[in-house]
């Protein structure tokens, strides 16, 4: 309704739609690539990045340089040990970290639940590059990161909503948009 469009499987359905007086035009929708059997199938990009066809963005040098990215999640457990994030941490691309659940100053070693690696995995999808496998996992490899731990992970509470709002306000005060 909003896009004023429809996707249909071709054949007679497409011909029937074309015959309607209010149909302006039709065009084929690009199909998704099939899953590869090898994660490195001819590319140093993860399957998801290849499927999004981001090669042109990378060829233009778009890598997050000059961009501030805030990640609000349940935790960043062992991010410093993951090859695809260790370079970001070593390059001081983490500008700030705030934990709304604990006074533990080290974001990489905070154990609150079994879900504390979720933020680590999300961060990898945003920015990761694994130098060992030479696999590009995310695009923003040169961005500056602001990390906030707001959720416990084991249970849900209204406090997490307050923490999330506080993290948004904190990120906004640091110029993260």
Mean pLDDT score:
83
Number of helices: 6
Pattern of helices and strands = HHHEHEHEEEH
Strand content: 5-15%
Strand order of the largest sheet: 1-5-2
Question: What are the segments in which pLDDT stays under 50 over at least 5 consecutive residues?
Answer: 35-42
Q: What is the β-strand count?
A: 5
Principal-axes shape call = extended
Label the structural class: alpha/beta
Gyration radius, in Å: 21 Å
Please estimate the helix content. 25-40%
End-to-end separation in angstroms reads 30 Å
Task: Please give the largest β-sheet.
Answer: 3 strands, parallel
Structure description:
There is one protein chain. By secondary structure, this protein is of the alpha/beta class. 29% of the residues lie in helices and 12% in strands. It has a three-stranded parallel beta sheet with strand order 1-5-2, sandwiched between helices. Strands 3-4 form a two-stranded antiparallel sheet. The longest helix is centred in the last third of the chain and has 16 residues, at 158-173.
Briefly say what this structure is.
The protein is 29% helix and 12% strand.
Which labels suit this protein?
about 180 residues; alpha/beta; two-stranded antiparallel sheet; 6 helices; extended
What's the helix and strand layout?
Elements: H1 12-18, H2 47-52, H3 55-59, E1 68-73, H4 83-90, E2 94-99, H5 118-127, E3 129-130, E4 135-136, E5 144-149, H6 158-173
Parallel strand pairs: 1-5, 2-5
Antiparallel strand pairs: 3-4
């Amino acid at each position: 309704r909003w896009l004023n469009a429809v996707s249909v499987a071709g054949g007679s359905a497409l011909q029937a739609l074309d015959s309607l007086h209010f149909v302006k035009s039709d065009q084929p929708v690009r199909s998704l690539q099939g899953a590869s059997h090898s994660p490195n199938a001819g590319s140093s990009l993860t399957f998801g990045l290849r499927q999004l066809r981001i090669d042109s963005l990378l060829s233009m040098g778009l890598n997050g340089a000059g961009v501030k990215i805030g990640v609000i999640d349940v935790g960043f457990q062992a991010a410093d040990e993951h090859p695809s994030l260790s370079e970001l941490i070593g390059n001081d691309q983490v500008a700030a970290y705030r934990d709304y659940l604990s006074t533990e100053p080290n974001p990489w070693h905070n154990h609150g639940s079994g879900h504390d690696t979720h933020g680590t995995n999300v961060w990898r999808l945003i920015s990761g590059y694994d130098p060992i496998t030479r696999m590009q996992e995310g695009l923003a490899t040169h961005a500056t990161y602001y990390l906030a731990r707001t959720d416990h992970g084991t249970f849900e509470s209204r406090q997490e909503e307050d923490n999330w709002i506080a993290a948004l306000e904190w990120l906004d005060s640091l110029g993260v948009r």
